[in-house]
Amino acid sequence: MNAPMRFAAMILAMTAGSAARAQTVTVGLITKTDTNPFFVKMKEGADKAAKANGAKLMSAAGKFDGDNATQMTAIENMVTAGAKAILITPSDTKAIVPAIKKARAAGVLVIALDTPTEPQDATDALFATDNFKAGVLIGEWAKAAMKGKPARIATLDLAPGITVGKLRHDGFLKGFGIQEGDPSIACSQDTGGDQAKGQTAMENCLQRAPDINLVYTINEPAAAGAYQALRAAGKAKDVIIVSVDGGCTGVRNIKNGTLGATSQQYPLKMASLGVEAGVEYAKTGKKASGYTDTGVTLITDKPQSGVDSKDSKFGLENCWGK
Length: 322
What we know:
Keywords: Signal. This is Sugar ABC transporter substrate-binding protein. It comes from Anaeromyxobacter oryzae. Belongs to the bacterial solute-binding protein 2 family. Strand 9 (240-245), helix 9 (248-255) and strand 10 (261-264) form a beta-alpha-beta unit. Helices cover 45% and strands 18% of the residues. The chain has helices at 3-22, 37-52, 68-80, 97-105, 131-145, 163-176, 195-208, 220-232, 248-255, 267-284, 312-317; strands spanning 26-31, 56-61, 85-88, 109-113, 125-128, 153-157, 185-190, 214-217, 240-245, 261-264, 290-293, 297-299. It has 2 domains: 25-129 and 266-288, Response regulator (Rossmann fold, 3-Layer(aba) Sandwich); 131-264 and 298-317, Response regulator (Rossmann fold), CATH 3.40.50. It has a 6-stranded parallel β-sheet, sandwiched between helices. A 6-stranded mixed β-sheet has the order 7-6-8-9-10-12, sandwiched between helices. The chain contains 11 helices and 12 strands. By secondary structure, it is an alpha/beta fold.
């Protein structure tokens, strides 16, 4: 090959390389925090899916559960950086909507993971557990496990204004066969899904109603905190705890008997599907839309008649976190 031809080939290769780089799709992932094992697993799923699809992943997280300001800033930064799609687990399901609207107006596909916005159609699509169903499952199990014994219930909830918390709470009540305000609900406290706050909330409930015998918790960290309070009060063996998550720590707590039942969800699947949808939109213009159910399974080693469940062995094979 003579010099002019070599030079032309070099220019062609450089142009092709530049074009390839220019076509790399950027997808953003914004989680509530970067410490909760659920969101750690979600990021892991997004990372793997991005690499498999030749995409670049930008990630950000709130400093705490409920940190709307950091999430809004992350959306703005990702839009500026050229992200074609943003996946978000909204901390404040209402307050984040204006930032999402701006991103969508700029041509960015926005998909909610795990937690729907208010209204739900503020995002293009939702990939999530059916959180109401997750609550129903543990409610049904708890009702059966009580064997007709009068219930004195503590609900350890998330926080006001977060749809995932309300859906799980309402689902539990539905599954147990009661409504809000039922006299069997002895105490309700917010925990932010945090273990330390869950322990404090349980301590407060025990002071108010020492005869509590059933505890609904928003997630497994809150459940772990509740158990610590119950154990310290010498009541751990007398109280049933149910929860939602299906993390490996929670499933081990099913196995050792400190947690009665949990509804397992699948964060890796949510994120993987979200990244794939983002890449498809960038390449074809096809938008994901509506709600995609990423599945939920009741995990317990104490199965109850009429309630579908899997045991802790299945739970450990499909769990997330450490």
